Amino acid sequence: MNRKISTTGLIATDTWFRKLGGSVFSGLSHCRLAALIAFGALLLGGCATAEKTAPKPMALASGVPSSNQKIIWRQQLPFDEVSVQALGSPLVPDRFGSDGLLVPASDSIRILDLKRGKVLNGVSLATDASLDSTHVASVGVYEYSLYVASLDGDVVALSGKDGHVQWRQALSGEVLAPPAVSDNEIVYHTGDGRLVCLDRETGRSLWVFRETPPSLTLRGTGAPLIVGNRVLAGFADGHLISLDLATGAVVWDTVVGEPKGHSVLSRMTDIDAGLLVVGDLVYASAYQGRTVAVSLSSGRIVWSRDLATYTGMSIWDDHLYVTGPEGEVWAFDRNTGEILWRQEGLMYRKLSNPVAFKDGVYVIDFQGYVHLISSQDGHLAARMKVGSESKITPLLMRVADDLLVADAEGRLWLLTTGGGR
User: Fold this and answer.
1) How far apart are the C-alpha atoms of 385 and 369, rounded to whole Å?
2) Which residues partner with 195 through β-bridges?
3) Pairing mode, if any, of strands 291-295 and 230-234?
4) Which residues contact 239 (CB under 8 A, 6 or more apart)?
5) Residue 109 and residue 37: Cα distance in Å, rounded?
6) Across 211-287, where does the E strand assignment appear?
7) Higher per-residue confidence, 348 vs 32
8) Contact 103, 112 (CB under 8 A)
């Protein structure tokens, strides 16, 4: 069911127990975490668990036509070697001889040819790099260099031509997000709330900025963005901060999610969903907080909605699409924040980030169904099953005019959009 809504009274409910892909907790000792879980169990009624009390996924609506999307190719990556969660960004064409996806493996950073679905020989991880797929958290790329970061906070720069180690740098905390890379700088957001800016050529530390994280946070950090001479990053305390790229000085600091309530759970306001920038507007969303459009130049909030997301957002033309915490999908006018429609037919189906194209908005659920939602009025236009049921919500990525699906078991599909080719 979809609704046309013009009111502003949206509710972001407490969905901490449905966060997937690993523990949602960070920054707690085992004793404190055990005590918190025990206390939570009492609140839920003795032996009852959050999983048992969570609402059941909504049944698939009848009458929705099957999608006529085509599978361009499918690939099974070696799950024992590859960390699907650490899949890199698509490479720049002609740099490594292929338009491809970086795939961290046990002995190399391989390249998945996105046109053919073939895994190509990649860059060998030198012995002294001391990194493997179980530890690789992210891979960045710039021209002929690869920047491989481990969960432990070690960053190694490798030559994309022969795998030679160019430099190594140890950061202060674990790395859980890809870096932002520019001509001269590379910026990492570490798990202890630091932004660390390194010289891209030498690995030398240029500056460090820290925003002290709260005692309880979601498992993850928001990826930083470099826009011109600014670095943008969202933090676990709900602050969106713009820094000068050259010096690390704060240009502006805007509160997106303000802690509310008395419990540590209700006060979680992490900004983990990816930031989006179009023109002078930055779009950000805080867990249990709100979704905002902020002026890039001044930090002023242009519009705000009481809606939270931790999966992500997508933009096409003048529409901003957001997957809500309960599995609802929203469409906003990205300039004014006006609510255009709300799709409620996929509630509690653990939806992925939305990916918008000209023909509509795509999401995938925990059962492996890819849903196409009309961008005009929000109705469910089509669906297609590609994967199997998974505890971890699959990943969606845009690849030119096609849609890449990756699940937690290393299976990949490249699908057409727009009703097929």
Assistant:
1) 4
2) 189, 209
3) unpaired
4) 211, 253, 254, 255, 256, 271
5) 38
6) 225-227, 230-234, 239-244, 250-255, 276-278, 281-285
7) 348
8) yes
The answer to whether residues 288 and 269 touch, using CB atoms and an 8 Å cutoff, is yes
8 Å CB contact between 360 and 317: no
Which long-range CB contacts under 8 A does 330-339 form with residues at least 24 apart?
331/361, 331/375, 331/378, 332/291, 332/305, 334/278, 334/281, 334/283, 334/293, 335/281, 335/293, 336/303, 337/293, 337/302, 337/303, 337/304, 337/305, 338/6, 339/5, 339/6, 339/7, 339/8, 339/10, 339/305
pLDDT, tens digit, 9 for 90 and up, residues 58-83: 999 999 999 999 999 999 887 555 55
DSSP for residue 51: H
- Residue 401 CB contacts under 8 Å (≥ 6 apart), including other chains: 357, 416, 417, 418
Question: What is d(CA 150, CA 2) in angstroms, rounded to the nearest whole number?
Answer: 43
DSSP string covering 322-385, please?
A: EE-TTS-EEEEETTT--EEEEE-TTTTS-----EEETTEEEEE-TTSEEEEE-TTT--EEEEEE
Q: Which two tokens stand for residue 382?
A: 């089509």
Pairwise CA distance, residues 283 & 106, whole Å: 36
Amino acid code (one letter) for 119: V
CA dihedral 172, 174, 177, 181 (to 10 degrees): 30
CA proximity to 153, closest of 180, 127, 135, 128: 135
Tokens representing 235?
């933090």
Task: For the chain, state the CA radius of gyration.
Answer: 21
User: Is residue 380 within 8 Å of 64, Cβ to Cβ?
Assistant: yes
What are the DSSP E strand ranges found in 36-98?
Answer: 71-76
* pLDDT band (50, 70, 90) for residue 240: very high
Q: Identify which of 297, 289, 291, 296 has the alpha carbon closest to the alpha carbon of residue 274.
A: 291
Q: In the numeric block, which tokens belong to residue 6? A: 């013009």
Strand-pairing partners, residue 339, are: 332
